[in-house]
Every structure is written in C-alpha cells, then in structure tokens.
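>> received
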Amino acid sequence: MDKKFNNIETQNLATLLLSNMEKFNITSAPLPGSEKIYVQGSRADLKVPMRKIKLSPTIDTDGSKTDNEDVIVYDTSGPYTDPGYTINLAQGLPKIRQNWIEERQDTLQLEHLSSEYGRMRQADKSLDSLRFEHVNTHPRIAKKECQVTQMYYARQGIITPEMEYIAIRENQLAEQIREKYKKEKENRSELIYQAVSHRTLSVRKLLPDGPSFLPTSIILNANP
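>> returned
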C-alpha cells in the first residue's frame, strides 16, 4: 500500500511539474559582459560555441586608456544562453551528434528498449502524461565486431567530428590570436601560442595513447 501511495504521489508531482513547465523562469540571455559566438568547423553541422568576453580598457598611470581585445573562451552552457534558440524543455537538447553517429554506419538502432523494466514502463498508459517528447525509446548498439569508441577511431587514424569539435573548443582560436599579433608582438604571441598548443596538442595523438579521453556515447548524442 505504501509503495502504491508513493508511486501515485510521484506521478502527481511529475504531472504538476509538467503542467507548469511553461511558467518556469529559465535563464536564456547571454551572460553579462560577453557574447555567445560559434566557430565553424569543416562541415555545416559542426559549430562550436564560444564566449567572447569584453574587457575594460587598461588605464595607465598618466590616465590614458588603452582598449583591450576581447578574450575568447569555450562555452559549455549549451543552447540556453543563445538568444536565437527557442527553449522547449519537453523536446530536450538538440541532437547535434545524431548525423555523425549515423554516418559511420557502425551502429544499429534497436526496435525497442532492451530493459524489461523500461518496456514495462513504456507500455504503462497511465504514465503517458509524464513522458517527454525527446526520450529515446530506440537506443543504439554497436554492430557485430564493430568498436564505436573515439579511442578506437583515433587509433585507426580517423578524425571524427567529435574530435574536431573538442580540438576547436580547446584551442580557443589560438591560431587567430597568433596571426593577429604575428607582426606586432612576434615573441609574445609565439609564447602564448606554444603554451596553448602544448596543452591541447593533437587529438589524434592524445586519444590513442591514453593521456586524454573523449567520453561520447552513441545513446546520448548532444554535445561532445
């Protein structure tokens, strides 16, 4: 009886939350003093979010001001800080990796959930009002004799979109910084570039040898 009561109470609470979802006050504006930008990768569906932070001028001892360039850092806040994104909690996050995974043709999509408990809950019509639109009821598994880890791809010499994504993100436009100051401040920019490059290196070198790992899942296909 207690268990049944608890289940009913949980369902009532979930129903209440879902019915009031549109009333939730969700922060969706850019963070103060910064602007969300995207760095385009080698393909149309590979755009890496960055944050351009505006710096205040440097005031010298004589009172003169020198404007400072914006600082670019990577942004892990997701689409919620993108003014152009329409938020819908019921639909979940954009599945930016879905095409990347499908293109590799090394996975299969199951006809139903592999968990008996999951299938039982899915068949329970009393829970229909609680379901989110984006819940994945057809999970993916690797094809027979296929490996679907980023480490495996790296060891085969394959650069996946996920690898390119994190390489762009971690370098934080270091190449552009280097070119911009190449003539004006050659020595200083070289030191900055070397420091950043030494830290990020090449994903094809880091992933196969083990110092770095990329925890991507064929089931969770949002951002890498």
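>> The beta strands are 34-40, 47-53, 58-59, 65-66, 71-74, 107-109, 140-142.
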